Amino acid sequence: MRRLVLVLLGILAAAYCLFPFYWTVVTALKPPERVFSLPLTYFPWPLSLENFYQVWMKRPFGRYVLNSLLAAGGGTLLCLFLGSLAAFRLRYLPVEKALAFQRWLLAGAILPPTLLVIPIFMAARALGLVNHLLGVALSYALLNFPFAVWMLYAAFSRVPRELDEAALLDGLSRLGLLFRIILPLSRTGLAVCAVLTFIFCWNEFLIALTLLPDQSHYTVPVGIAMLSGASAYEIPWGEINAAVALTTLPVILLTALFQRWILEGLTAGAVKG
Amino acid sequence: MKKILLVGFCFLIGFWYKVSLGYAKRTILRMVGPEDVNGAWAEIIRRFEARNPQIHIQYLSGPWSTDDRENMYIRSFLSGDPFEIVYMDVTWTAKFAARGWLLPLDRWFGPEKTRVFFPGALKAGYYRGHLYRLPVTTDVGVLYWRRDLLPRPPRTWAELEDLCRHYAHPPGLYCLVFQGMQYEGLTCNFLEFLWGAGGRILDSSGKPALDSPAALWTLNFMQHLIKDRFSPRAVLSFQEEHSLEFFLQGRALFLRNWPYAWKIINRKGSPLRGRVGLAPLPARKGHLSAGTLGGWGLGIARGTKDPEAARAFIEFATSAEAQKILHLRRGWLPARRDLFRDPDLLRHSPYLRELAPLLEKARPRPVHPAYPRLSDTLQKHVSAVLAGVENPPKALRALSRTLTFIVEEPETGLLKRLARDYELRRTLKNTLFFGLVSVGLEFVLGLFLALLLYAPFPGRTWVRLSVLIPWALPTAVMAMSWQWMLNNPFGVINDLLVRAGILAHPVDWLASPRGAMWSAILADVWKTTPFVVLILLAGLYSVPRELRESMAVDGAGPVKRFLYLDLPLLLPFIRVALIFRLLQAFGIFDLIWVLTRGGPADGTRTLCLYIYDLAFRYDDLGYALFLTALFFLALIGLSFLIVRLTTLGYERRR
């Protein structure tokens, strides 16, 4: 009996969490002329890919995806690179000092990015990086840096210290030690960190909106937010929903694949913080 | 290994440069406009490039919303790499010119060249005696009336009311529809009512002049139109197209709109073809009416590498040839007077003859560098009056106060501004409400879900995954989804509530300040509860099982166990989640920007939206940074406070 109640509650919770996404997909799969028809159908039939085709062919959605991939991918790589260097350095500090340092870093990471957008914009302008994907990628790397350091530090500390000493004795340089021993040994942690950073960058909106005024540089979230105003006569909801479905699908797949590690990665932090 | 990484990295950077620069290198001059329907601009650019093969014009089609395109231009000016050709609305000129973002055009376009334009349209391109913008198209607010139902067009508002009492019968047939949504169009509509009553916004010395009987009459009259069902309540969500659609369905006797509507009303297959007349807007008895002057023009951005090329394009795009193309393909009115006598055009559009005198009389909106803020403020209060949430005298008092503040602002110091910043107080109130309510709800729901997921039951992994998903999805993108779900009448939320019998009929959630706020809270709770769940779940797992079991053996029930064992041990986790969530909620931007843009009537504008507007819309970086710094300090203080409050006595002594 107790079990039955729990299962029912679980189903209810899952439905609540998944419904917006379900509704998006359902709307996107309706034939365009059925999107605006009453009464609403919850299990539409026949399905149609027309909305997806429209958003892909008529609008520069492919371009947005490419931009997003470049900005988020570049930001993630950069962030991992810098983060692993920093985490590697922290490995050689006494534990209390390393943790204190990370706590300060985290204090920075907990601030809402809205506070940082004006300084970031000014810095990017000074560097001539406005309207350039590199500027966005750099900001992403910067914004996710504390988080990456903190996850990688935890991952690195699972590698025994004795290995360091042995490798150094065998003549490896410090960087060699990092790239050949420590990183390969903590690849799970690295992968989780990469996935999370990538999701954060892929989802980011404000920085991309501010630093990239030119439409040909829009990332996916900005492109979708601007779609509502793309036509004078009506808001193309079918296409918007198709675009939303296309954007969220990879995130959902990544989350599903890495579920266990994401939970661990995130909650490990909570224990320490 | 190292080398491969390095090469890969360089390759990636190189690839990036190529892709991201590829666009810019092909072209010299860029301009931003709305979607180029019927290829009018493409045709102009094709002809221009055929004659000037060394110049390439790149037409970037931006969002349809004028505000969004203006913001695109502003960000591009601020970035130091501006779009070279500035395709601007009449109202942008003063602000752009005052900031020094535009090149003066006087040296190329003297009086002998500019005489051909309508004086009002040309005047709107001047700022402090210099010409910055040449008009391409013009526009003027006009009244459409049902020639088939009414004997004559009204000259005064009183006549219009009389006609309507006789001929209109709401809700089947309303009297007048206009544009009442909170956007620039509302300013235009308000100004026409105001001018028709002999009022104005700024007096000749540039001081606000809204504390006048004319202004009071205007607001009262507009409210009366809606309250007494001369206009449908739906005008509150109308932009041009919505009002035209309503009129085309034969549901209103009069329509206030721009001349572009004439073509649509009279095209083949239109139900009202040949049954509609065009007239000047009515005025109050004893006053002269005037339509708001609209229209688009071209300027050159300062910092353009080849201003000569830009000049050549502007000269061509403002020529009779180009304006003819724009009229024939898009129906836009030429800014050149000579074209209104052009036999070709008159044969194609005979109504131009009636429009010419209206255009000569059209009045521009106030030319002021802070115009966007003036207009935003105006819209906010007028829409609040129309919605019935503010009464006209109160709205006027608030308006005068804010307008004075905006106009005098440049001379006051930061602290003084802070003390008088009424908008800040309002946004602060919204921010606090939003943050506290949504974080509170998240914790209740989050704790519940965490406890649920802690208990073992079949399929728990799947439920856990689905709870994780809202957290992982992009906020801005899902905000679009929520906007769709909240749509009236096609939104699923309305449908579900109606089916469940909770609502009698669909509700326009995003059209009222309170509805919009609760919608934003709903979306935020959905999106961020998973985060709270994750943290609390980790906390629950950290509680030693043995302790719980030994408590159970000692006879403590589940409630007692939760209160005396789990809750104290959960505290550090609650602290982390609380700090993190409160800071994020107070700093909310994406969700609200996409969902409501802070509207309606500023009901959902939070602090960060205000700061963002200050920085990137009103170009007031100094004050924006000042507010950011204050906000920053406040958040730090808040975090310390939370840590203090959630640390138990025995922990503190450590």
Features:
heterodimer; A: 273 residues; mainly alpha; MetI-like fold; globular; B: 654 residues; alpha+beta; D-Maltodextrin-Binding Protein, domain 2; three-stranded antiparallel sheet; 29 helices; 57% helix; 8% strand
General description of the model:
The complex is a heterodimer of chains A (273) and B (654). By secondary structure, chain A is mainly α. Chain A has a single domain, classed as MetI-like fold, CATH 1.10.3720. Chain A has 14 helices and no strands. Chain A has helices spanning 2-29, 32-35, 50-57, 61-90, 95-109, 117-126, 133-156, 161-169, 174-185, 187-203, 206-211, 220-227, 237-257, 259-272. In chain A, helix 3 packs across helix 13. Chain A is globular, with a radius of gyration of 22 Å. With 654 residues, chain B is an alpha+beta fold. Chain B folds into three domains: 18-136 and 295-361, Periplasmic binding protein-like II (D-Maltodextrin-Binding Protein, domain 2, 3-Layer(aba) Sandwich), CATH 3.40.190.10; 142-291 and 370-411, Periplasmic binding protein-like II (D-Maltodextrin-Binding Protein, domain 2); 422-652, Orthogonal Bundle (MetI-like fold). Helices cover 57% and strands 8% of the residues of chain B. Chain B is built from 29 helices and 14 strands. In chain B, strands 9-10-8-11 form a four-stranded mixed beta sheet, sandwiched between helices. Chain B has a three-stranded antiparallel beta sheet with strand order 3-13-6. The two termini of chain B are 48 Å apart. At the A-B interface, helix 1, helix 4, helix 6, helix 7 and helix 9 of A face helix 1, helix 3, helix 19, helix 20 and helix 21 of B.
